[in-house]
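Bit of a strange request maybe. I'm writing a small parser for structure token strings and I need a real example to test against, not something I typed by hand. Could someone generate the tokens for this chain?
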Amino acid sequence: MNLSVFAQVLWSSIAFSTFYVLLSVAFALYLKITKVWNFTQAGLFSVGYFFIYGAHRIFALPAWLSIAAAILLVAALAMAIEHFGFRTLRRRRSPTLVYFILSFMIAEFLIYFVTLLAGAQPQSLSASIFVPSTPVFGVLVTSWDGGALLTVAVLLLALLALSRTTIGRKMVAVADNASLAELFRIRPERIYLATAALSAVLIVAAAWLFGTKSVAVPASSLDLIFIAVISCILGGVGSLAGAAVAAVVLSILKGFSIFIVPSIWQNALVYYALVLVVVFFPNGVRLPPRWPSWLPALRPAPIEPKVAQK
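Reply from user aminoacidic:
Good idea to test on real output. This should exercise your parser:
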């Protein structure tokens, strides 16, 4: 492999990681605040993807209008699942396994329902997945690459800005200790609904980026969510920055794996990687003791117990 091929694969993998990053952050955000491994996001991805396909490709609605309508639909579904599903389990003090089973069943139901309506044929959100490219220092950069990176940057910066607002501070409080947050008149149920709606924005944005770059069938959303799960575990459960960085790293590894593993086995690699991560890195990748201070931490800093002063 010469240097030009290496640079091209590296750049393409970084650009391709944009929707992985959005899905990983959406999954990590919901997990951090609600403590639920929400696999229903796979079904929500399929709903958002094929709703945009129907609105934009079949009914010829503008892209921005199709995306906005998809966000409203997916947010409504996500909030309904949170309100009628997970809230009920919390009131019954159900074990964690019940949350997992319910979320996976809802995901499968949504995926099969979308398959029934849209069919099992691969569909693209763009009329053509081939876009003009411009050589930059020997690397072909497409207009999709720039738009995808800009979209992710804007959404992540907006998420960072939201964390400094009142609703953002309430989310942090509920994520740290929901019971304690109630003492300060913060209703965790409302925060959970807001988290579901916020995750829906990231999911629909990821669906649009994925659909304008590749083709998808409803069941392919499970592979994408499993990548988000791997990213959340590797980056450290509870760290949004760690999940985002891990998603980029996984995309790069997947891009270079094509030189070793045939393309027919690429989807299977996701499941193999999930098993390896759960077995060998259940608490995420531990950083070296002298991690540079200017790099983002992949794991949240441990909370030291406060000692009461005499």
